[in-house]
Amino acid sequence: MVSTHRPIWTLPIEAVYPALGTNPQGLEAFEAQERFQRFGANELPEPPRRPLWLRFTDQLTHFMALLLWVAGILAFISHTAALGWAIWAVIWINAVFSFWQEFRAEQALAALKNVLPSQVQVYRDGALTQIPARELVRGDVVQLEEGDRVSADARLVSAESLYLDVSVLTGESLPVVRNPHPVRQRESLAVRSGKPLERQGEQPQHDKVNPAEISNLVLAGATVSSGRGTAVVYATGTQTEFGQVAHLTTEVKREPSTLEVQVSHIVRVITAIALSMGVLIFALTSVLVGMEVKESFIFAIGIIVALVPEGLLPTVTLSLAIGVKRMVRHNALVRRLSAVETLSAVNVICTDKTGTLTKNEMTVRYLWLPPVAGDLPPAEPGLPAGHIAVTGAGYDPTAGQVHLSDNSPLAWKAHLLLSGAALCSNARLMHLTAPNRWQEMGDPTEAALIVAAAKAGLNVEALQQRYPRQREIPFDSRRRMMTVVLDWRDDLWPQTFPQHSEQVAFTKGAPLEVVRHCQSILRDGAIAALQHADWETVVAANDALARQGFRVLGLAVRPGGADLQAMKAQDLEQDLTFLGLVAMFDPPRPEVPEAIAQCHQAGIRVTMVTGDYGLTAEAIAQQIGLLDNSFTPHEQVRVVTGDSMDHLSDAQLQQMLKYRSKLVFARMSPEHKLRLVQAYKAVGAIVAVTGDGVNDAPALRSSHIGVAMGLNGTDVAREAADIVLTDDNFATIVGAIEQGRTVYQNIRKFITYILASNVAELVPFLLMVALKIPPALVIMQILAIDLGTDMVPALALGAEAAEPGIMQQPPRSHTHPLMDRALLLRAYCWLGLLEAVLGMAAFFWVWRSHGYGLAEIQAVTPALLTHSATAPVLLIYAQATTLTLAAIVACQDGNVFACRSEKASIWRLGWFTNPLIWFGMLIEWTLIIAIIQIPFLRTIFSTTPLNPAQWVLLLVCPPFILGAEEIRKAIVHRFSRSAHQNLTRKRFRVLP
After folding, report:
1. Scanning 91, 313, 382, 521, which has its CA 20 to 30 A from the CA of 302?
2. pTM score, two decimals?
3. Is 125 a catalytic residue?
């Protein structure tokens, strides 16, 4: 694989580095750059894509386009070439419009790939640093930790409890163990009578092996399930096993979201209605009105073209894309379009505490040592006796100190506690010069321990060299502990242990877990047996600190010899000696209380699910307003631990979730988190779940919306999530829900807008049949309305910002249809009907101004339908249809403002908060004026110039539509206010 003589997996560890031209300190920066130039980036080529021209032809050949092509052909057959060309123009205009929108949406989604580039930890110039995965080169020494995605093929040189998920390559669902030991190459020889037949000078053949099954290789595409390791890269990009799998280079077609499927269904239903209405109009006009078959046929085609919503689906796609781009600007990266729709229905958020509700900026505030009378500071209110204060904040080791003098009898105990905590950590501190600050690398909790040790005057790097690490048992969420074995021959504190120890194991973790594994305690300078009273003292100290909102870690030690390295992990973490506690504070994010309050107003229940101690979780929940008393003032807070959840049946858990709101879930394992999500789903909740670890992936996948952390989350969690937060901030989730609601409402807005105009186009033909009058619109004018009013204004409604008060409304039901009865009644029976009334009023007003009543109009109708009317009558008719056309367009101006909200007044929204609406109105009036004033267009659209009085009459239409809608909103608002308050209160107390 690397050498023609021996594959990389067969080499001993010390031979791996020279074989790949590197060393344990990693490549020099200039050497890495030279290899990058020579071998290229560590990425796969873009998959083949359909040419743009073929994707454009898709817009000309879908169902609705084919329907219009047929309609155009029929128009040519019936000798109405102008209508045929107009229909085909509709096809091309919609094709260009749809292609442009989908192309923009695709470009927006493609650009998101660069928002969160994959990062890897690599040794460069002897220092561990983070670089983009695409910059990896052969010979790079990479460090792997739990949750990391392997970005290149590499050979392990060290590993500690390392398990990999290689399901991408092998389909194996269970994690597989990996180790750095060389693998002997299997030879195959011909055998006869039990003896190998090997001719002189002949080389034996080697068995073919699958690299994914070799125990010392970590291949690109795999993920680290648990443990740690160091590996040397030997293949990148297309040379990796991942890159050579042929099916991975094929394009994966994006599945349509449930919203797009629902809109497609709406389009098909409306298209079926259009066809039915066309057939009905054809039958009625030819039978009842007495119109010639050719004329009836032309009108039927016009009705079909008018009612088919050609631009609805692409407008939905663009509206989703606009919502996605807005979320990116607010630090929420949407990985699946369907998530935008689902966000609008979320009514439960299960969120982590650390890093999401809090800053994830740990600072050690107190140490606690087992108390002995006379050698400890006195207790302070709310704090246990035996605490030692640590000042400062953040990761600057120079900005604070441990309040304990060096000559204090407690000094060596505190130093031992902090040294053990720092040595049992993998984080590092870096001092940056631009800007001038200290930056942590690794887990913030471990970084805080290192900072506290430095504040006590300890040199952590010197300690690490003096006591080199021999073994590590990584932390996991089930044990809640981490252990390291150190070479302790050079003992700095010989008074600690009764006899000299060659090696020492330090264990840190959840205090109650650590003390449960202890048999002794360091007290009064000596190791004594751990009595029940000692256990109670430790628990009381832990609880007192936790009630203040501190995150508390316990530390224990076990002296021994070389046998510590050979012990099983579960045996090593027994018979420990308890040393003390470290209390650190992770301040809540300042914006979180307001975001929590927004959720409460929006009818969204927020549930904290954390691995922290229950009292700590409850204290933080109280600080951020999570346990709000507004709706359930008499309900007591209940902290549910993982152990107590194990004693609840599924039915009991579901009942608790349904009828109680003041719940805090603490000491939760990934299995508990998954069970909690499933229980919420079982009671009908739409659940969003946050997660950052590899073990959070099942809960993220099980939830309706999985939300992963972009800064501190693992690659596995990000792959499982629907949304990635690039700032790990809870307030960003609330903002994403607001955008999800906005997108859903915007789609309802432009559907209402389009359907209302269709009613105004249809009513003239229904009245033609009912009253036996000429149609108030001709077919070409209907097409002008469609092209002039259903394009840019509808797009403007799809780009509306969030309405005021959108987060004061309860979540929508996920079973609620997009086009419900309320939308249809408002569009068809209110706004559309108002437009139709004004349009027909304009039609009759022109006739009345020339002395024609209904009977006179009916008298000249046969001549108009057969094109045999006199010139004056034709002129009056042309003016009447022109004014009807202009009136409907003017009504649409009022309609577009009316449709900006289903409930809020335009005075509350603001007239100029969406400039795209004014741009759309400018476009439509430019088109209408051109149709009325330019002779060439007048001939095509059968229009004639209007007089000044008629232009003034048009000014009445927009305020009439908008004013009527404002009155309706005011009435509805008055009667729905109390109902909304009761509904919100009910949603908080009992989930649906």
Report:
1. 313
2. 0.71
3. no
